[in-house]
Amino acid sequence: MSRTALDDVALMRRALRLAARGQGRVEPNPMVGCVIARAGRIIGEGYHRRFGGPHAEIEALRRCRSTPRGASVYVTLEPCCHFGKTPPCTRALVAAGVGRVVAAMRDPHPLVGGRGLRELRRAGIRVESGLLAREAGELNAPYLKLLRRRRPWVILKWAQSLDGKIATRSGESKWITDAACRAHAQRLRGRVDAILVGCNTVLRDDPMLTCRLAGARRVATRVVLDTRLRTPLDARLVRSARRTPTWIVCGAGASRSRAAALQAAGCVVHRVPAGRDGLSLPAVLDLLGARAMTNVLVEGGGRLLGSFVDQRLADEFHIYVAPLLIGGGRAISALNASGPAALRDALRLGKRVLVRRLGSGWLLQARAR
Asked: CA-CA distance, 181 to 196, in Å (whole number)?
């Protein structure tokens, strides 16, 4: 590989690292990073920091230490070519007189879809695309899934003992993991659009399902799957529904009067068709995707988590493991739905499984294949 090609890879990797800093923004837009370089040396860089704010290319142009005229621009996603919250980045790049644009991947957004690259070429700018496209696609997998499938990225999260139990046989689960794991899980809540649980979790734990850490970037919508509308009117979720968005998703035949009472308390009630073992989970995801929710965190309980795995609807896993053994045939397992009859039908995870020490336990992060 030539020195120029090595420089291109290194500079695009830098742009990808910058893009990752945008994780947790409120809108369903992609994470984008941009590096501007001349002869392999960076003269400006930036990333998309907030909804409605300057895009990565504009941030990088503004931070240039010398003129960008004739320079190379490395951007993790095709520059936009339409007016949205901000003017088109393609026009800014043309006006700056850059000589070359290297985009990791095309933007599949219907208003872009290759038009940005064509506009740059028509202006006489040398354009290349596809460098580290796989890495860029992985970084923006939630955005791409929402665009292509109209469904959110589904993250399953649970805390368990070493032997895979999320509660004892009496249902006790507070606290399996220590404060370090719980704080990390709170940060995860602070960067998703919705937190989803089953009705049994509400009846058993009466949770708030909010991020308790200061400075959270998002206020997640709390979603309860409750086929027969058993959620109590005095549940903390219901009593706080006017402050924090709260959805109760029920079946078509659920009580009209019960739905009206929950709505009067500030909840939003949605009805979806029946599915395997309760409500149709694909219909629930379609509902969330129609509201442009990009990331959804499923917190349980075991039957709901297991159903997402059984139906192959999960994209990512965050598993907090504590150094203890609970045991017992009646203790609650993390994935407590049907499960496969044969090992060949078990869910295989992606090749990259991150294991890191966290407090006295461990965090396992992985994606489905």
From this structure: 19
What sections of the chain are H helices per DSSP?
3-20, 56-62, 89-96, 115-122, 133-139, 141-149, 179-189, 199-205, 236-239, 256-264, 281-290, 302-310
Contacts 24+ apart (CB under 8 A), 344-350: 347/309, 347/312, 347/314, 349/317
The amino acid that residue 293 corresponds to is: M
Q: Does residue 57 carry a catalytic annotation?
A: yes
Number of CB atoms found within 10 A of residue 150's CB: 13
What is the enclosing helix (H) or strand (E) of 272?
strand 268-272
Scanning the structure block, which residue is given the tokens 């708030």?
A: 208
pLDDT tens column, 229-284: 999 999 999 999 999 999 999 999 999 999 999 999 999 999 999 988 789 999 99
pTM of the model: 0.88
> Which of 57, 59, 78, 299 is the catalytic position?
57
Residue 365 CA to residue 76 CA, distance in Å, equals 24
Q: What angle do CA 314, 29, 290 make, to 5 degrees?
A: 60
In sequence order, the β-bridge partners of residue 279 are: 274
d(CA 254, CA 5): 61
User: pLDDT tens across 278-318, in order?
Assistant: 899 999 999 999 999 999 999 988 999 999 999 999 999 99
